[in-house]
Design brief:
Blueprint lengths: L2 E3 L2 E3 L3 E2 L9 H10 L5 E3 L16 E3 L4 E4 L8 H8 L9 E6 L4 H11 L5 E5 L10 H4 L2 H12 L5 E5 L5 H9 L4 E4 L3 E5 L1 E2 L2 E2 L5 E6 L3 H14 L4 E4 L5 H10 L3 E3 L9 H17 L11 H8 L2 E12 L2 E6 L10 E6 L3 E6 L2 E2 L2 E6 L3 H8 L5 E8 L9 E6 L7 H6 L3 E7 L15 E6 L6 E2 L2 H12 L3 E6 L1 H11 L8 E5 L21 H4 L5 H4 L1
C-alpha cells in the first residue's frame, strides 16, 4: 500500500509524537533508516534558544496505561539543532516533520527559516499544556495563531498545527484560513497534577497527561477537525493497537502517532511492534498488542516505594554509600531513581540489592542534599530499570571511578570473576566488598594503593593473565572507548558489555535523552551495551 503526504510518497502511516523517543538526532537517524513503517519522523519541539527544561522528575505513571510529564520544552536551540541535523542522513521516503515553538509569529518564523532546508514540513507546537510562555498559552489566542500560521506557511513548506484537547473552533478556523496544511491532534491533556503521599511528583508540579486516558478525547477532537476540513490529520493520543487506529481512522485521521504505548520497549521491540502494527492495519489482525508491556508490571516498576536510610558510610568528602532498611528485587547492571519531594530525582546504579545500597558521588544540589540526610530519614525509590546482560565463562569486571557502583552485583552473581578497579586515590576506591568473591586488581592515579596509573594501563596484562570469556565495563566514556579497543583483541565483541554515563531522566525510554552515538537508549537497550551500540 502506498502512502503520500503533501506530494511526497512516504514509507508508512505512522510517526512517534514530538518529544517522545526520537528526541536526539542519533535516534532520529536510526529510526528513520531502520523502521520504514515510520513514514513521518517528528522531532522534538525546537525553539530560538537553548532550553534546559525542567528538573527531574519530568515524568510519572498516571494510572496503569497513562503518564503525566513536564519535560519543559527541553531542546538545544535552533542553531545547535541545525548543526546536528546537518550531520545525519534520512531516507528520501521519510517526511521529516520538524516541531517548532515560539512566543510569537517572529520567533516561529525565525526558527522555521533556519531549519527550512532540512524540513519536509513544520509542526507548530501551539498546545504544550504546562509552559507559562509557550504552547497552549500562545495557541489560545486565535489572532496570534493566525499570524503564526501565515508567517510560517509563507515559506512554502507544509505547516501542521498541533492542537490541544480543548481547542476552540475559532483557532481551527483561523489556522485553515491562514494556510495550515494539516493538523496534529492532540497534545497532552493539562495542566494536571499528580500527587504521591501528598507531594506533587513533577518538579514543575503541573504536567500533561498522555496514553489511554486521553484516547476518547483525541478521537473526539479528530472528528471535530474533520468536519471542518479535508486537510490531513495526524492522530496522536492513546493509540496502542490496531483497534485504536481503526477508530481514529473512522473519525477522519490520515496518519497515526504512537508514544506512551512504547514505554519500556527496547529498540528491537519497537521495530517489531511497528512491523506488526502495519500488518495488523493492512490485514485486520491484532498481533502488535503482544509486544506491549504488561501495564500492571510497568505501573509497579514506576511506583515510588518508601525506603529509610539505615546506614551511611563516607569514603571521602564527595563519595559516600547509603544502605537502606530493605532489599530490592534487582539484577546485575540495573539502576533506580531516588526521589526526594521538593528537591528532585536522580538515577543511581544499584551497588547491592540486599539490603539496597547506593554508591553516590556529590556532584550538585541533589546529591549534596542527599549527603546531609541522616540515619532514619525517608526517601522514595522507583525501579529497577535496565536489563542485565547474560554472561558466559570467566567474567572480567572493569570499573573506573563511580562506575564501580554498578559492578558489585555482577561479582555476587558470577563468582568466577576478576575485578579490575581504578580511581584517582584510595579514598575513591571502595573495593573491600569485592575482596572475598573475586580475583582483585587495583589501580590509583597516584599509586596510593595497587598499581599507579589508569585502569587501561593495567588492562592488557590482566586480560593475558586471567583469560576471561566475557567483560563488563563501567566508567567514563573515554575510559570505555580505550578499554574496548584493548579487550576486543582478546574477547569477542559479542561478549563485551559497557555502560557509560548518559543523562537519564525517565528510565522507560520515552524522553530519549540517554541516546548513545548510535541512537540506542541506555535505559531500555542497556544500560550495558555492546560496542556497536555505543560507538
Amino acid at each position: 500500500m502506498k502512502y503520500e503526504l503533501h506530494g511526497k510518497e512516504v514509507s508508512g502511516p505512522f510517526t512517534i509524537p514530538s518529544g517522545v523517543i526520537t528526541t536526539e538526532v542519533q535516534t532520529i537517524e536510526m529510526f528513520a533508516n531502520e523502521i520504514p513503517e515510520l513514514g513521518i519522523i517528528t522531532t522534538k519541539s525546537i525553539g530560538a534558544r537553548k532550553n534546559d527544561g525542567n528538573r527531574e522528575p519530568i515524568i510519572a505513571q498516571y494510572g496503569s496505561t497513562s503518564f503525566i510529564n513536564a519535560v519543559g520544552l527541553r531542546n538545544p536551540g535552533v542553531d545547535e539543532f541545525r548543526e546536528r541535523l546537518s550531520m545525519i542522513k534520512i531516507p528520501g521516503d521519510r517526511f521529516l516533520m520538524i516541531s517548532i515553538y515560539g512566543a510569537n509569529e517572529y520567533e516561529f518564523r525565525n526558527v522555521a527559516e533556519k531549519l527550512y532546508e532540512f524540513a519536509d514540513g513544520f509542526e507548530l507546537n501551539l498546545s504544550c499544556p504546562h509552559s507559562k510562555k509557550y504552547g497552549k498559552v500562545v495557541g489560545q489566542d486565535a489572532n496570534l495563531v493566525g499570524r503564526i500560521v501565515r508567517f510560517v506557511s509563507s515559506l512554502g513548506k507544509p505547516v501542521f498545527v498541533k492542537v490541544s484537547p480543548d481547542v476552540e473552533d475559532e483557532v481551527l478556523e483561523t489556522s485553515i484560513e491562514n494556510g495550515a496544511n494539516g493538523f496534529v491532534a492532540i497534545n497532552t491533556l493539562g495542566p494536571a497534577v499528580l500527587y504521591h503521599n501528598g507531594y506533587p511528583v513533577l518538579s514543575n508540579t503541573f504536567g500533561g497527561i498522555s496514553g489511554k486516558a486521553i484516547l476518547e478525547i483525541g478521537i473526539r477532537t479528530v472528528r471535530k477537525i474533520r468536519k471542518m476540513t479535508s486537510l490531513p490529520i495526524i492522530a496522536v493520543g492513546g493509540i496502542s493497537d490496531v483497534n485504536d487506529i481503526v477508530r481514529y481512522k473512522q473519525a477522519g485521521a490520515s496518519y497515526f502517532g504512537i508514544g506512551s504505548a512504547l514505554a519500556s520497549m527496547s529498540t528491537s521491540q519497537i521495530k517489531e511492534y511497528f512491523r506488526r502494527l502495519l500488518k495488523d492495519l493492512e490485514r485486520g489482525s491484532n498481533n502488535a498488542i503482544k509486544i506491549l508491556k504488561d501495564a500492571r508490571l510497568l505501573a509497579q516498576k514506576n511506583t515510588y516505594r518508601k525506603y529509610r536510610i539505615n546506614k551511611k558510610v563516607s569514603f571521602s568528602e564527595d563519595l559516600y554509600m547509603i544502605e537502606f532498611d530493605a532489599s530490592i528485587d534487582a539484577q546485575p547492571g540495573q539502576f533506580v531513581f531516588l526521589w526526594i519531594p521538593k528537591v528532585g530525582e536522580k538515577p543511581f546504579s544499584i551497588f547491592n540489592d540486599d539490603p539496597l545500597s547506593l554508591l553516590i558521588k556529590k556532584r550538585g544540589r541533589f546529591t549534596s542534599y542527599l549527603a546531609e540526610l541522616g540515619q532514619g530519614k525517608w526517601v522514595y525509590i522507583r525501579g529497577p530499570y535496565g536489563n542485565s546482560p547474560s554472561l558466559n565463562g570467566r567474567v572480567l569486571l572493569v570499573g573506573g571511578g563511580t562506575g564501580i557502583a554498578a559492578l558489585y552485583m555482577f561479582a555476587k552473581r558470577y563468582r568466577n570473576c576478576v575485578a579490575l578497579l581504578g580511581a584517582k586515590d584510595k579514598n575513591h576506591l571502595p573495593y573491600a566488598m569485592f575482596k572475598d568473591i573475586c580475583e582483585l586488581y587495583l589501580v590509583t592515579e597516584e599509586g596510593e594503593i595497587g598499581m599507579k596509573g589508569l585502569v587501561t594501563d593495567m588492562l592488557e596484562s590482566v586480560l593475558l593473565r586471567t583469560k576471561p570469556s566475557s567483560v563488563v565495563n563501567c566508567g567514563p566514556e573515554q575510559m570505555i572507548r580505550n578499554a574496548v579497543k584493548v579487550e576486543a583483541k582478546y574477547v569477542s565483541q559479542e561478549n563485551i558489555y559497557s555502560s557509560i554515563e548518559k543523562l537519564t531522566m525517565c528510565g522507560i525510554g520515552l524522553c530519549g535523552t540517554c541516546a548513545t552515538s548510535k541512537g540506542y537508549r541506555t535505559c531500555v537497550d542497556g544500560n550495558f551495551l555492546l560496542p556497536h551500540q555505543l560507538f
